[in-house]
Amino acid sequence: MKKLLNISDLNQNDFENILKFVDDLNFQSENNLTDKNIGLIFEKNSTRTRLSFQVGINQLNGNYIDVRLEELNLNRFESYEDTFEIMSCYLDYLIFRTNDHKKLELAHKYFKKPIINALSDLSHPCQAISDMYTLKENFGSIDNLNIVWMGDMNNVLFSLLEVIVFTKNTKVDVLTNEKIYLQNKDKFNLNTNIDFHFEINQDIISKADCIMTDVFTSMNDKEDKESLLSKFQVNNKIISMTGEKSVFMHCLPAKIGSEVTEDVIKGKKSIVLTQARNRLIAQKGILKWLSI
Ligand code: CP
Ligand code: NVA
Fold first, then answer.
1. What is the DSSP string of 53-107?
2. Which of 70, 75, 114, 185 has the fewest CB atoms within 10 Å, counting from its CB?
3. Who lines ligand 1 at CB under 6 A?
4. What is the mean pLDDT of residues 125-152?
5. From ligand 1's centre to the CA of 124, what distance in Å?
6. How far is the CA of 114 from the centre of ligand 1 (A)?
7. What pLDDT does residue 45 have?
8. Domains of the chain with CATH codes
9. Strand order from edge to edge, sheet including 171-175
């Protein structure tokens, strides 16, 4: 049974198939989800992920059902285990955004049908797939790229570091705070082409094809990390160190003035709107992969 809790649930073939489906121009008119009922659970806020899944499911002729956990008997005394098991009596797939990755694993155990992680505290695989598609669209290939990530070691970075195993020679340099690195290094011990740095490194930035960042403080964070990460803000000084063809990426939502300045996110190197737009076709590619 297919699932997408983390990028590591995919093999090279799955990943390449998803990108091929995303790229398939005829795909827009396919009805891969006819008769499929898909539950959407969002425990946390979402603009892009929720709407792109909803619209994508409509375009593929499927049905989605917004499941509000607070309206279920889970809110009274029914367990997660029983709730997910009962949901699998009615729903074909589950798309689940949660504040606790363990709930996704629990859902996978009891729902017994395909589940997609729509972001957890640990990872954001749908974002990573979509971003690889955006990089491919922009550079013609996802191989031999230098990606510089500036800021927090969070769910979006985790999935980015997982997804680059499917590329050839693409490298990620992570510029982050040492304390944050020490807290996260075991979780991020992914065996790929990755280096960590704790200072702004002009040499590395000058080789970047892509500067990528995300909010310094994520939805799950209890503490504000602004003071730890402020020196890793992506501003014009950083962008001016990069080459002519470099791009700026951010999964959004952005906290302007924190991890990125307004002139950068609205500037000519920013491809954040393309990134957001591509979420729709990427979700459809993921759903097609799940349904065949
Ligand atoms: N990038 C992303 O997942 O955005 P949302 O939180 O708005 O879904
Ligand atoms: N790291 C962010 C991503 C939002 C799409 C968060 O978890 O809040």
1. HHHHHHHTT-EEEE--GGGSGGGTT--HHHHHHHHHHH-SEEEEE-S-HHHHHHH
2. 70
3. 46-50, 119, 127, 251-253
4. 98
5. 9
6. 21
7. 97
8. 7-123+279-291 (3.40.50.1370), 125-276 (3.40.50.1370)
9. 194-197, 171-175, 146-150, 210-213, 247-250
Q: How far is the CA of 203 from the centre of ligand 1 (A)?
A: 32
CB contact at 8 A, 182 and 207: no
CB 76 within 8 A of CB 132: no
**CA atoms in the 13 A half-sphere facing the CB of 90:** 10
Ligand 2 binding residues, C-beta < 6 A: 119, 154-156, 214-215, 218-219, 251
Mean per-residue pLDDT, 232-255: 98
For 12, the enclosing helix (H) or strand (E) is: helix 12-23
Question: How far, in Å, CA of 215 to CA of 254, rounded?
Answer: 6
Ligand 1, atom 3, lies closest to the CA of: 49
